[in-house]
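Record 1 of the preview.
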Amino acid sequence: MTISNRIVLSSDHAAVALRQAIAAHVVVRGWAAVDIGPTTAESTHYPAHGEAAALRVASGDCRFGIVLCGTGQGIMMAANKIRGIRCGVCSDTYSARMIRQHNDANMLALGARMVGEGPRARDRGCVPRRRFRGRPPRNARGDDRGAGAFAAITIRDREGP
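->
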């Protein structure tokens, strides 16, 4: 099986311009951008865009995905509902590196209202340059399997005081 050099990008209406700027940056960095998001600022429903991008990654059509909405949170949750997707919201380079290296993230979510168009795509760690360095910590996944679902960090309630 060959490894795809394709990155799928999608967003809702709140992040059209930023998504298009990131898509251009992805191409400059040597990746093939598959932009499936809307082209106008007409209101759209973010869960559909998160799901569509996640399905492309989960199927193997694209190696990675970048999804955007106003905060990044909603579209990340929608993407993580697809089996095999590990998507995290990041607004800084360090976090983007860590979700890839330590949690084997295959999708990145950004909040257009959080990072804006001012910061350049490379400053947000959008283009994957790091490899997964091992299994995600057991407490982050909630199970023993190397391919277990990862959705940010699971916080478990503790019993007692």
